[in-house]
Amino acid sequence: MLLTKKSGAASAHPRSPFVHSLQRGLTSAIPTMDRRAFLRRSGLGVGVGIAAGSLTLVKKAKAADGKGPAVGEGRIEVKRTVCSHCSVGCAIDAVVENGVWVRQEPVFDSPINLGAHCAKGAAIREHGHGEFRLRYPMKLVDGKYVRIPWDQAYNEIVARLNEIRKASGPDAVYWIGSSKHNNEQAYLMRKFVSLYGSNNCDHQARICHSTTVAGVANTWGYGAMTNSYNDMQNSKAALYIGSNAAEAHPVSMLHMLHAKETGTKMIVVDPRFTRTAAKSDQYVRIRSGSDIPFLFGVLYHVFKNGWEDKKYLNDRVFGMDKVREDVMAKWTPDKVEEACGVPEAEVFKVAQTMAMNRPSTIVWCMGQTQHTIGNAMVRASCILQLALGNIGVSGGGANIFRGHDNVQGATDVGPNPDSLPGYYGIVEGSWRHFARVWGVDYDWIKGRFSNPGMMSKPGITVSRWIDGILEKNEMIDQDPNLKAVVFWGHAPNSQTRGLEMKKAMDKLDLLVVIDPYPSATAAMAAMPGKPEDQNPNRGVYLLPAATQFETSGSVTASNRSIQWREKVIEPLWESRSDHMIMYQLADKLGFGKELVKNYKMQKVKGMDEPVPEDILREINKSVWTIGYTGQSPERLKAHMKLMAHFDVKTLKAKASVKDPVTGYDIAGDYFGLPWPCFGNPELKHPGSPNLYDTTKHVMDGGGCFRANFGVEKDGVNLLAEDGSHSVGSDITTGYPEVDHVFVKKLGWWNELTPAEQALAEGKNWKTDPSGGLIRVVMKNHGVHPFGNAKARAVVWNFPDPIPQHREALYSTRPDLVAKYPSHDDKKAFWRLPTLYKTLQQQNIADKLHEKFPLILTSGRLVEYEGGGEETRANPWLAELQQEAYVEINPKTAAARNIRNGDRVWLKSPTGAQLNVQAMVTERVGPDTVWMPFHFSGRWQGADMLAYYPSGAAPVVRGEAVNTATTYGYDSVTMMQETKTTICNVEKVA
Amino acid sequence: MARMKFICDSERCIECNSCVTACKNEHEVPWGVNRRRVVTLNDGVPGERSVSVACMHCSDAPCMAVCPVNCFYRTEEGVVLHDKDTCIGCGYCSYACPFGAPQFPAAGTFGVRGKMDKCTFCAGGPEAHGSQAEFEKYGRNRLAEGKLPACAEMCSTKALLGGDGDVVADIFRNRVLKRGKGAEVWGWGTAYGSKQAGQPQGAKS
Amino acid sequence: QSNASAPAGGGASTTTSAPATPADDPAPATGGIQGQNIFDVKPEVKRDASSEAGYMQQSNGQRNAVQPGNNSPMWRDVKNGVTGFTTLPYPEAGNLIQGQVQYPGSKFTTAGEAWRQVRNHWIVPYGGALLLIVVLALAIFYFTKGKLGHADVTAGTGRIERFTPFERAAHWSNAIAFVILAVSGIIMAFGKFFLLPVIGQTLFGYFTYLLKNLHNFVGPLFVVSLVIIFLTFLRDNFPQRGDLRWLVKLGGLMGKGPEVPSHRFNAGEKAVFWGGVFLLGTIVVASGLVLDKLLPGLLYERATMQQAHMIHAVAAMLMMAVFLGHIYIGTIGMRGAYGAMRRGYVGEEWAREHHEYWYEDIKAGKIPAQRSKAMTIVDDTQRVRPV
Ligand SMILES: Nc1nc2c(c(=O)[nH]1)N[C@H]1C(S)=C(S)[C@@H](COP(=O)(O)OP(=O)(O)OC[C@H]3O[C@@H](n4cnc5c(=O)[nH]c(N)nc54)[C@H](O)[C@@H]3O)O[C@H]1N2
Ligand SMILES: Nc1nc2c(c(=O)[nH]1)N[C@H]1C(S)=C(S)[C@@H](COP(=O)(O)OP(=O)(O)OC[C@H]3O[C@@H](n4cnc5c(=O)[nH]c(N)nc54)[C@H](O)[C@@H]3O)O[C@H]1N2
Ligand code: HEM
Ligand code: HEM
Ligand code: SF4
Ligand code: SF4
Ligand code: SF4
Ligand code: SF4
Ligand code: SF4
Ligand SMILES: [Mo]
After folding, report:
1. Which of A719, A735, A711, A721 is closest to A784 using CA atoms?
2. Which domains, from first to last, does chain A contain?
3. Is the CB of B121 within 6 Å of ligand 8?
4. ipTM of this complex
5. How many angstroms separate the CA atoms of A306 and B99, rounded?
6. What region holds the 4Fe-4S Mo/W bis-MGD-type domain (chain A) (predicted)?
7. Ligand 5 lined by A121 (C-beta under 6 Å)
8. Size of interface B-C (CB pairs under 8 A)
């Protein structure tokens, strides 16, 4: 006896917007990705559906304050937003009923993710519950967090800030911004710190891709992924080195696996056999920290077999001959095998695959960046790609997968200690440029700094703020030590030397955490430390920030496409959006008016909040360098609505379609106007899908290498050779970047309107506020404003102009340290003394490698993100990873009598002891152990639950690997060494 | 009428667990109940493959056959559903199911389990389509809304296909022909019988 | 070499099984097929791949190296129920498909299916048939032979205390628990065939839900009372002189003649005691405790539960069959028996007729006629008075 429906079988209703988007599905042009046809043919698309509007959406998700509307009487809206967990930038349709986020639907229309998500994106709606979030401002009183009103919090914080400023000057405060902020907030943050009178600000990019940005920008111009996830479908071979995309950028695998099905060869080089490796055609296990020997080992075979692209090298690359000499001499197969452990045949096979299957692309990520020589490692990758002629080529490129959802954007326009938005260096010209855009007086800004010299001195980096507190005052390169730290969307357990961080936190006068999930920092601050470190007058404040779903704004994905997030819900509990807090805090600090001069205000919960669109317009007016000028809010919004009309492979609009609201026609555009999108929005530059691509007209997103390093070096021409210009350029030789003189010389000055001329006089393309220079050279002459030069295989301004392998400071291999020693120590580097060789030698002398014979490396789990407090507070994710663990090879485990699932102590030279679970697995080799870095909430074996603000502890807590990670910083960017250190593991007795 | 089936393409699945959380999200499934899970074989060594598994909505469903109260039923689309009102929580379906699909909210002593829960193919339960009661007991009814399973729709790599057996097979065929390998469809033999597996439509149901 | 691009043994979990078919067909046409090459797209075969040494012993990685996309070694493992990795920390979450077994009476197939076959093809139909047959047989017996015995329980002079209040309390609590368990068990096993069509899905569901939970909670009570019963009646259930003769003549109950003499319990009762109470009881109780997840230290995986269930169900059916007989004799089947257990006292006449040796022993003073302390037993019928 079978049951039938009790009642109410669905009847035919008009088609819902979902049904429509379902039917669009995946484009049928791509057979192995197809789902659109599927949905159509499943017979479900039409007729059977209940329209979203008439459907009674039911929900358990009550509004935060508990006054959720009764079921079925709600007004249903669909808000399009973007996942906030990683740089892939997956679009999400949030279904909101009477202000409650009740459902989430895939956006099949998105050319980036075609509806797909990873665990985090598919669980994003939990942000609408926010059960474990900080609900209201809190203050640490006698070791416990107590609730206080916003105004009290502001008043007390501001009083303390003013006190500190008075006593020690503006440099005594350290502002840790966030790559979680949208572009508008990140930009406003830099503006905020600038108007506060300091360069002491930073964000996650420092400990993420700073080495990439520096290395890549110095090689060919821009510090960004050159192509896109989508473009990887055009690759014939892909080398993933130091990227575990299957866990860290899962949806990128949608494109790669599709490519694989059409014949792309995939190689993975990693100390671990990762989920990405499982999908590869060839997996190569290297020793952590030995990427240069491997890459140059590959390059050795390329040169040896004459596989390099000679014409390309001649026309577009500087210095490869020098590199060649170095590589052929130093990286013979035996040396390569000695240093990275890979035998010649395997290295040869990689070289052959990459050379024989062009265009071939390279993907790298944290495996390369997080080293004391990260800047050199990433350049070795660039050099390999240059040698193969793969840069500026669709299907080739350096596909550098970025990290946080908006780390690209925050790097581009956000709180960097050494630059203003758009990588404008902190020199007077840039300050003046921005003073003008902000509408504030340059001298007033200057007066805000402790002295004019500090205006052009790069600030301390987030990787080392603790040394700004702990280092002796005479050793640091600024007047005061740091007295206050503001964590504005950054976790503590993501930085190394956690034990010392605890000490630094205790010494502070003021700690402010502005975050929806400030709990990791909060617990660490509240946990009793050593009494002698404790500052009795310390103030600790927690302010609840709104998430990215409680505000609107733009976010830059890894491929430089910019997407607009609509506000999904109003800020939950008492939280406020970051830009509102910035405004309110600035107001109390006395520079509120200056901060928001160009913005209209909107009311949110009855309070003034700067309109994000206006902030974006200000960005549009100022950030010429990297082409953040064309992406007006209107264009971005039109793209979000018309996603369906962009091609999945090329990202180009397939037809001319008009957005009904703005009337904007997307014809010719690339999805999200990937930067550089030059000129004013009216120029209608379509964005640049692949950087440095000479096969396209500059007005179609084409380009060439940037002329950023002069026109010649040591008598060698640095500009591109004749004929290697982008299609349709009036200048067929290499040329320098464009300024008023250059344009006049060429006789194009009169093509500027008189108004433009007035503004452009005496300016270059980066400072011309009219955009006229750009318009004329690009549109009228096909000329690239940043010039046409050669990429640099030799970056002479770096410590190692040709990338050199150097062993990590903490190494298990004294023999290799002897051969490949680290740099000399630096005295004042980003305002701090920095150790290299002395520490390395000391470690060898102390025989640390005997006490800690295992390489400790760390990385990501697909379920968790960053420091993890946010994702570990999401029960849908937390259930999937309930224990911090360490991966140990069966051999290593057997030697220590450790079985799978045992509790073990992981000990490191920092003195840390981590009590974690052992996962005995062949994912790692016998010399290496690996830990995910997303855990916090347990400290050297003890649970920190008691120190959390009540109700704001995450569901899962575990030991943070970064209490075990050691000293070590990149010699250019201060990137922390998180990928190669040493440890030992023993069974918990 | 279409015969609903799942295919999980192990050549594509990357164990991202999106299918798992998508399901939790869409149906607000509580902690401890996992309608879908992802399993990796040969973990960490060459030859590693992952497969996502939930109820396969078998043609000759063992769960249905052993249920003491006959609370299972099959929809016209071949989806195997059950009635939580009459389920007695005996666990027999979970002993019988080859795939470990049936889940129980409690795992206490005295054989206490609570009402069985399993993947509904996002097709709700016996209550009225889209009703509050249906949602609270079975989660959302996407099929009635003209949508396909949330897990398959959000799969990061489109490894997981769910829908009309003919169509998913077609899509999969395209893929297999293109790559020339990996034609194995996991679980079909067991779930749908060996004969009909190639002909998704021919179902004794 | 240190670089694991060559497969390193295929991992701990991948012991390849014996070859299925020479062609290494990933989907041999036996029961419990897990996967199928549904389009006949054969994996890219490098020439001579299958002639590689140890082709059939290859791990999945090794096989992939010579035949990309051929995952037969893995599917074979899966079919055999190998447990893979999963992030969910729950037992058996890493198992994709239950391993292949052959339970008595089933085909060699996935465990779940095998269990289903055993339950649905054997336990339910034959168990049901057994119970029906027993009931039928007892009915026939009753209608042909009528009640056994002659003496009424109070017949004859004297009052002999056959069961002390404690014994009776133990027995009846046990009996009540048993009846509840049996009824609920029967509804679980067979209710859908006879009750569901009558009372409908909803009512049947609620009713069975109640009974199921009753079963689960009464089970442990039954365990306790069974132990007490066992210990209480153990002494008088050891084999004694004359038991064999009783057995050989079946107590003489079938014939017309007098009953074969027996001690306090006759051999038939002893058989029930040992076979029914002790043997089947232990089995039912032990397996029941497993099904109730009450035994500590067990993992309670599906295989455990299936096996416990099959044992439980078979033993329970047999036990019900046995105790149907016992109950029959104890109620309408034999004159006076019920009264003996109901009130605890029998008349001398009854005692002599049914348990002659016992009677003699009492008469000889070897066994006291009154074992419980003299006390007032308030009986609803007021038929038994203080001695
Ligand atoms: N699920 C999830 N996704 C994320 C994030 C997250 O937290 N969770 N974070 C985002 C962020 S901020 C970032 S930056 C990206 C990072 O993305 P990835 O860099 O891809 O992630 P990781 O796991 O940190 O590191 C990648 C691999 O580097 C390997 N590795 C370690 N040492 C070395 C080495 O010396 N050489 C080489 N070649 N490889 C090495 C590790 O074994 C690891 O598998 O992910 C983003 N996406
Ligand atoms: N050992 C080891 N350490 C590492 C790494 C590693 O691989 N190994 N990776 C490094 C890398 S690449 C990175 S990027 C870092 C990541 O580390 P973090 O960026 O420090 O980690 P998250 O937890 O992502 O921190 C982001 C914080 O921002 C908050 N947040 C989210 N949205 C908003 C918002 O809208 N406003 C505000 N105000 N706050 C918000 C979150 O709640 C969270 O507390 O870790 C680094 N540390
Ligand atoms: C001796 C008396 C008992 C009888 C006659 C009996 C009978 C049965 C029967 C017929 C079934 C159903 C089998 C099926 O549907 O396939 C069953 C199931 C079960 N029995 Fe018993 N049983 C008895 C004692 C016990 C005891 C002592 C326990 C526990 C301590 C127990 C626990 C269970 C459990 C847990 C089940 C599984 C069904 C469920 O969980 O609802 N039983 N029993
Ligand atoms: C409704 C159910 C039952 C009835 C009506 C019943 C009836 C009786 C009666 C009348 C006697 C006394 C026989 C005599 O005087 O020799 C007896 C004895 C006994 N009964 Fe029951 N009984 C029932 C259920 C059970 C059950 C479920 C068990 C145990 C599993 C059980 C175990 C015993 C034992 C152990 C004796 C003592 C005889 C011996 O040890 O051999 N009875 N029962
Ligand atoms: S975390 Fe990254 S890959 Fe996953 S859904 Fe979000 S944006 Fe997409
Ligand atoms: S997979 Fe299991 S639960 Fe689903 S229909 Fe088949 S036997 Fe039933
Ligand atoms: S647990 Fe519920 S659905 Fe499963 S067999 Fe028992 S009664 Fe049927
Ligand atoms: S079909 Fe629906 S119910 Fe089933 S696993 Fe997928 S999301 Fe969950
Ligand atoms: S979502 Fe897709 S790729 Fe991810 S685990 Fe599930 S089936 Fe595999
Ligand atoms: Mo990052």
Report:
1. A735
2. 210-400 (3.40.228.10), 814-987 (2.40.40.20)
3. yes
4. 0.89
5. 54
6. 76-132
7. yes
8. 258
